[in-house]
Amino acid sequence: MTEHVSVRMTLLDAQIVDRDRLPIGRVDDLELFFPPDGGPPQIARVLTGSQALGKRIGGVIGRWLTSMSARLRRPGSRAGPSTFDAGLIADTKPMVRLRVQADELEGIAGLERWLASRLVERLPGTGHADK
Amino acid sequence: MSRVARFAGAALTVVIAGAAIWYVSAPPKGSDGYRERMADATRTLRSQVQSARIWAATFAGGDATSAATLVGFEEAERDASSAASQFESYEPARRYLPLRSRFVALAADATGALADLRIAAELDAWGRVPEVAGRLDNLAASLERFERRARR
Amino acid sequence: MNRAFAFTLGTLSAIGGFIDIGDLVADAQVGARFGLRLAWVSLFTVAGIMCFSEMAGRVALKTQRPALALARSRLGPRFGLFGLIGSLLVTALLVMAELAGVALAFQLATSVHYLLWVPVALALVLLVVWKLPFEVMERVYGLLGLAMLVFVVAVWQLDPDWSQLWSSATTPAPTGRETWATYLFFLVALVGAQMTPYEMFFFSSGAVDHRWRPKDIKVMRANVIVGFPLGGILAVAIQAVAFLVFFEAGVRVEHLSQTALPVAVALGKIGLVVAIVGIFAATFGATLETLFASSYDTAQYFGWSYGKVQPPARAARFTTVMLALLFAAAALALTTLDPITVTIVAVVCSASLLPFLFLPVLLVANDRELMGELANGRLSNAVGFATVTVSVIVAALAFPLLILTKGGTV
Asked: Which helix (DSSP H) or strand (DSSP E) does residue A17 occupy?
């Protein structure tokens, strides 16, 4: 690809949805891979979640976001920000759509699952609250 | 450098916030300030007296429910007494002592009349309401005169 | 859905969204103290909120996503985070004030102290959030909100001297007994009360939830054109009745009960009851709208799943944010903080946030790549730019005036 594409405009901060269009998170940062032969850098992994976002925002609020989010992660998951392989991306327009379902992604949107199982599903009436 | 700047910024914010809170809640300064607060407190009393008078008149005309009227009386009484007691806690200059005692007497009349209204309403003695409310007209007029005097 | 029906609903939600506790308090205060001398502000706020709601609605039609969700990709995460944190703080205050407003409406109906009604109001909000679908919710409080029209009827019933009203409305200056500082302070308060950004987001999120498409643009615009001006007329009517009943007597409005009193004077018990129903509907609807708008904003900023569209268990983070906000607001209401003071502080804070919430929408609606033929035209940009400029000035004046006038109590 020789055409110039700004990752900042097209990919960074974009909404991520799964195969069924369920929102998962945002592209909070990207991990690049520099080929040893000196070719153009490629996107290796997509970072998503407040831990990665906090690092990008920086400052007091950013640090607070990062540490809060790191502490909330379930024990056993890796210490770094949650990521997934860039190869899972099926489409980037109008938003980043993945080939898989949200539940198949290890370590992504952990808070969502934790809150769902520990809090929201235990509240009365959750099962049939809406159509 | 940026650490110093950040510290200075934080310190400035705290100072401004403190100054703002002080400005909003400080007791009056000087004799002008005292007079002005007296006029403001009188205006509040008059506002509550008039509000209660309108509630009473509306109720008497069969136009307001007793529940809403009682709420109106309660609020007028509560606001009037808190405005009066707050002002009375300020320390006056010696030469304002006579003016202050006139205020205290007026405020006592006003809160007393408002309490009578509220009690009549609470006891369901609505027949007494017009009689008590009759005092409010004169009270409002005296408060208005007194406010003008204090504001002069 | 039937088009005519969709139109009615959207209009109702625009009226309902326009009038909330901020208007009920600020408009009545302004009317009692300044007559109609600040009524012209509503011309500006109605034009501004119409322009931005139409823009946000257009973005939603074209992209099926609310405008703020797209703003992060354009302005970066920092700008959005600032607006988000600010609006969450203001929302906590606003939801507290709206909940207290619901409780105060119950108090007016029963004379039982409002603090006892706060838990009831909370339970009612939870029940509606949990059990009612979006559309039913919108419909019910939209219809109940029509009760607010009683304020307009009351203006006529009070048989005013119209030339006096007109001369008051055409005198943009404080009355003899007020200062310019308080005049400007209440100008800021009116802008904050009438141009609440959640109206815009709720309107666009509603468009997303209704799955409106570009062909629905006429219905969307008709809603904007009818709904918001009606809301503005209601706001001026609240000012007018407070003016007619309170100004001469020197009454300053400090309670929600005093907002309702002029209607009783004009229309008797039935009018009073209708006004209480209207106050209940307006504050209850606004509780839901503010709550949803902030939770939507949060979810969209972080890219979480959200909404009445996803069942709660599929939008756990969204649901948690909403519950946390609601309980924080209820706790705040139970601290016996005066809800009227909180309302005034909240509308002033809200006014100071306007530029941060308007600017992203203006930018997104101008993005031709994204919006194609539905991008902003000249009219939208002119009105939008003017609104942003004025809102920047209002935002800069908001806090100094709040302190200087001691919240308008001087």
From this structure: strand A15-17
For B63, the closest of C252, C269, C406 (CB atoms) is C269
Cβ–Cβ gap A48/C303 under 8 Å: yes
Strand partners, A42: A33
Q: What is the mean pLDDT of residues C146-160?
A: 92
Say yes or no for a CB contact (<8 Å) between C85 and A113. Answer: no
- Greatest mean pLDDT range, A22-26, A119-123, C309-313, C326-330: C326-330
The mean pLDDT of chain C is 87
Model confidence band, residue C102 (pLDDT cutoffs 50, 70, 90): very high
Q: How many domains does chain B have?
A: 1
Q: Specify whether the CB–CB gap between C122 and C95 falls below 8 A.
A: no
Distance of CA C136 to the CA centre of its chain: 20
Do the beta carbons of residue C50 and residue C228 sit within 8 Å? yes
Listed in sequence order, the residues at least 6 apart from C382 whose beta carbon sits closer than 8 Å to its beta carbon are none
Q: What is the 3-state secondary structure (H, E, C) of A68-89?
A: HHHHHCCECECCCCCEEEHHHE
How are beta strands A23-26 and A29-33 bridged, if at all?
A: unpaired
Per-residue confidence (pLDDT) for residue A111, from 0 to 100: 75
E strand or H helix at C172, and its extent? none
Q: Tens of pLDDT along C8-66?
A: 666 666 676 788 898 999 999 999 999 999 999 999 999 999 999 899 888 888 887 77
Reported confidence tier of residue C112, pLDDT bands at 50, 70, 90: very high
Residue B118 lies in a domain: yes
Q: What share of chain B is helix, strand, coil (3-state, %, to 5)?
A: 90, 0, 10
**Taking 60 as the threshold, does the pLDDT of residue A99 lie above it?**
yes
Q: What is the DSSP string of C174-231?
A: --TTS-HHHHHHHHHHHHHHHS-HHHHHHHHHHHHHTT--GGGHHHHHHHHHHHHHHH
Write the residue in C299, C302, C314 that is nearest to A22 by C-beta.
C314
Residue C128 has pLDDT above 50, yes or no: yes
How big is the A-C interface in CB pairs under 8 Å? 84
> Which domains does chain C possess?
3-288+329-404 (1.10.4160.10)
Tell me the shortest Cα–Cα distance from C157 to chain A, in angstroms: 44
Q: What is the pLDDT of residue C9?
A: 63
Q: How far apart are CA C102 and CA C117, in angstroms?
A: 8
Question: What pLDDT is stored for residue B138 in this prediction?
Answer: 93
Residue of B nearest to C260 (CA): B68
CB C224 within 8 A of CB C53: yes
Q: Which amino acid is at C298?
A: T
Residue B65 in any domain: the answer is yes
Higher pLDDT, C368 or A76: C368
Residue B67 lies in a domain: yes
Q: Can you give the residue range of the structural domain that contains B83? A: 30-151
Residue B142 falls inside a structural domain? yes
Which three-class secondary structure string do you get for C236-290? HHHHHHHHHHHCCCCCCCCCHHHHHHHHHHHHHHHHHHHHHHHHHHHHHHHHHHH
Q: Report the candidate in C54, C62, C60 with the shortest Cα–Cα distance to residue C371.
A: C62
Residue C386 is given by DSSP the state: H
What whole-number percentage of chain C has pLDDT above 90?
A: 50
Architecture of the domain delimited by A7-122: Roll (2.30)
Residue A93 is given by DSSP the state: S
Look-up of token digits 């008149």: B57
The secondary structure of C104-136 as a DSSP string is HHHHHHH-S-HHHHHHHHHHHHHHHHHHS-HHH
